[in-house]
Amino acid sequence: MDLGLTVGDDLDRLAASPARFDFCELGLGEPTLVPGAIDPERIDRALAGRDLVVHLPYSQRLATYVPEINDAIVDYQRRLLTAAGELGAEKAVLHATSADRDDVAFRETAADQLERIADVGREAGVEVVVENVGHQHAGLQLSVLGDIARETDTPICFDVGHAYMEGDNKAIKRFLRSHGDQISHLHCHDVRRRGDTHLPVGAGEVDYDLLASELDGFDGTVAIEVFTDDDALLVDSAERVADCLGVDF
Questions:
Q1: Residue 194 has what pLDDT?
Q2: Which of the four pLDDT bands, split at 50, 70 and 90, describes residue 201?
Q3: Cα–Cα distances in Å, from 81 out to 25, 32, 62, 76, 222?
Q4: Which of 118, 116, 112, 69 is nearest to 94 (CA)?
Q5: Alpha-carbon distance 156 to 149, whole Å?
Q6: What are 46-101's pLDDT values in tens digits?
Q7: How confident is the model at residue 195 (pLDDT cuts 50, 70, 90)?
Q8: Half-sphere exposure of residue 91, counting CA atoms within 13 Å on the CB side?
Q9: Cα Rg for the chain, rounded, in angstroms?
Q10: Angstrom distance (rounded) from CA 158 to CA 43
């Protein structure tokens, strides 16, 4: 299991992040890290031997009702994933969003879009992992995401904090039991129901012991997604998660 750190699209933060993490997860795409304008040597220096995971644009919808726009979305993600592959990225995180998450018939379109983008990733040598954002207005619900990910054979990025915001610790446990075998990547941070998110692990209400009970033997990648530049808090969060998963950090 590899334990890493999300750094947004900030190359200075990437360079300054603690060296003991195995990888860094870097935001890719407009308006900052745009393919064609990226300096691969600068990224390589900032990584300093760590592996690279990328996060595809946060606000880009996965699926719309307009076929031409859906084609354009796939083309855009192809450009990003090709660039990610050239940078040596191992995985790319994709938000599971939809024009209408409550339209049951439209879920087939969302599944088709997910499959197309995952296939583009494979062509680029990058594993696309689809992330749960069901706590957001456009995010597919956990149950829907799990089903279409299995249907399309797409690995999942399970964001523990997002799942808590969608349905409390019960939702975390339920999803891990039903779809834990599909999870390739974890986003770990703490949250509170009042709306605080991306807190240091242990500062909120997420029951991280669920990782120990439901993900025994997990051998994927784990990214600490705590919004702070305080190295001590980042390392402490990583140590807590590593302890839950029974590994050293």
A1: 87
A2: very high
A3: 14, 16, 14, 9, 20
A4: 118
A5: 7
A6: 999 999 999 999 989 999 999 999 999 999 999 999 999 999 999 999 999 999 99
A7: confident
A8: 25
A9: 17
A10: 26
- Confidence band for 30, pLDDT divided at 50, 70 and 90: confident
pTM for the whole structure:
0.97
Q: How far is CA 165 from CA 22, 55, 113, 215, in A?
A: 28, 21, 25, 20
Which residue type does 213 have? Answer: S
DSSP per position, the chain: -EEEEE-TT-HHHHHHS-TTSSEEEEE-BTTTB-TTS--HHHHHHHHTT-EEEEE--TT--SB-S-HHHHHHHHHHHHHHHHHHHHHT-SEEEEE-BBS-TT-GGGHHHHHHHHHHHHHHHHHHT-EEEEEP-TTSTTBPPHHHHHHHHHHHT--EEEEHHHHHHHHHHHHHHHHHHHHGGGEEEEEE-B--TTS--SBPTTSSS--THHHHHHSTT--SEEEE------HHHHHHHHHHHHHHHT---
CA distances from 76 to 92, 97, 190 (A): 14, 16, 32
Taking the C-alpha atoms of residue 93 and residue 72, their distance in angstroms, rounded to an integer, is: 19
Distances (CA, A) of 157 to 48, 49, 182: 25, 23, 9
* Residue 29 backbone class (left: φ over 0; alpha: ψ -120 to 50; beta: rest): left
The residue written with tokens 């983008």 in the block is 117
Token pair recorded at residue 244? 């839950």
